[in-house]
Amino acid sequence: MAVLVAAVVLLGGLVLVNLLLTGAVIRRLRKITKDSLAGAVPGNPGLAVGAEVPAFSALTVSDTKVTADDFAGERTLVGFFSTDCPHCLPKAPVFVTTARDAADDGVRVLAVVVEGERRPAELLAALTGDVSVVVEGEGGAMAEAFEVRAFPSFFLVGPDGTVAGSSLKPELPTAAPSPA
Questions:
Q1: Do the Cβ atoms of 84 and 50 come closer than 8 Å?
Q2: Successive 10-residue mean pLDDT values, the chain, 180 residues
Q3: Cis (ω within 30 of 0) for the bond into 152?
Q4: pTM of the model
Q5: Separation of alpha carbons 157 and 144, rounded Å
């Protein structure tokens, strides 16, 4: 009888350890999946080329209102970054360099920082200079309007308010060829 009790206790302990390890593996897989989705390379990072940017309203960190109507008349480069994205912070300085070059060519530049679990201080520090910055929470007006699927994502909006190019690289997206 003592052997049977010892075997049941041992088996119960093994089942408990297995349950704890399984829970730890599931938590780790969820974190890996979330991190990998942040760096996933979809076929299209958001709004398709040629799509009109839907109406939205947001405020920059300097309290300037930004709407879809502001894109009319000039080309605008819009970069989307997330505080939870491990790829965003390293690409921010490249985006700032691209922004300076684009500004010399008459392109307006706007960065959108989507605030997740982490605070945006590091990204805001990296996005200094000639870049206007909007900070919004997950599901914010601009990320929803551009249908952002991955971070970082970059869109070139034409003077007619439609997406002229999009990319997952912080360089200026090339405009799609115009129909003949």
A1: no
A2: 89 91 85 61 76 93 91 92 91 91 89 89 83 90 93 93 90 57
A3: yes
A4: 0.72
A5: 16
